[in-house]
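Students often ask what a 'structure token' actually looks like in practice. Rather than answer in the abstract, let us consider DNA repair protein xp-C-rad4, a protein of 73 residues. Its sequence is given first.
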Amino acid sequence: MVRVNEKPYKVVKARPKYDKLSRVIVTDQPLELFGRWQTEEYMPPIAFNGKVPRNAYGNVELFKPCMLPIGTV
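Now compare that with the structural description of the same chain:
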């Protein structure tokens, strides 16, 4: 995760991409790049009563083992 109040090391022009909603190719979008020294490890939320927290859509977001909430198996 990017640290709080970090400014991007570099800003480049992003590649063009197609917006499905408006059916237009979006160009000239800025893309902020951050270095490793500007980031920190993700701190997972604490599980209460052994239950894994879910997002607003009811999904559990676990992309890596380090994302498993504290207090779960």
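One point worth highlighting: The chain has two domains: 1-40, 42-73. Ask yourself how you might have guessed this from the sequence alone, and why that guess would often be unreliable.
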